[in-house]
Amino acid sequence: MGVKEQIPVDILLVAAMVLFLDILILVLSPGAVFLRTVIGLPVLLFVPGYVLVSALFPGKDDLEGLERLVLSLGLSIVIVPVFGFALNFSPWGITLGPIMATLSLYIMFMCIITIIRRHQLPRGAAFSINIGFVLKSLKADITSRRTGLDRALTMLLLFSIILATVTLAYALVTPREGEQYTEFYILGINGTAADYPGELSAGESGSVIVGVKNHEGEAANYKLEMRLDNRSLPLSDEYENIDLEDDGRWEERITFTPEDAGENRKLQFLLYREDDLTVPYRELHLWIDVTED
């Protein structure tokens, strides 16, 4: 049995598109942006649903052409957000790498299931891509002897899904100016938003990780100040001149040592911008209890 008989043309095309998109994303060259968009849109908006429909309905008589098209578009709009929701609760988060890895594995798995299921069918019974046949099938679906209401509802559903797909594609490819801001955050010493030093002894040092990320759309200069109960604490001179390019990030471990005991003491982290060093641009604080040594 030849390769063409072993791997259906549509599944071979889907697998090639996904692999090519993965390569383009790994290359990360400016010249690949256009190709990533052209190939990425169908991979996100059509292929996930198509491979699921192909695995569930491998026979050419299982679904009519219009039904297969509508289900592929509709299921893709559902599947991709589900993966995003699941990744949001994973250690990897919703970033380009994990999303593409998850989608690629899912699509390849469904391609394998589709190949197996189609080969289990009698010769000529499996669904295959033939442009002339597809167009004839779509025309037959639209002009079939269904009631006017059935045809109207089918066309309305198809139009709605195509409109949603086009709208989503437009939102993905249209450049838009994001909000300009500076991200300012404090992490525990293990790099997570937990395990902050909430209780110390007088003279005992505590540490946190302070981070700044520039989303201002231009280079910016910052100054960091730390206060305990509104009294400045000593910091290295390097924290008075933090230069960040647009989208640049700065993270440092900051250590402080409270000398006096007291409950609910306010530890402040003040971030200033070079255009105004009198009023804090961003402010964060922790509450700590300092006990007698």
Automatic annotation (TrEMBL):
Q: Which residues form the DUF1616 domain?
A: 15-289
**What's in the keyword line of the UniProt record?**
Membrane, Transmembrane, Transmembrane helix
Q: Which domain of life is it from?
A: Archaea
Annotated membrane-spanning segments are 7-28, 34-57, 69-89, 95-116, 152-173
Looking up InterPro entries in the UniProt record yields: DUF1616, UCP018671
Per its record, how is this protein called by name?
Answer: DUF1616 domain-containing protein
To which species is this protein native? Methanolobus zinderi
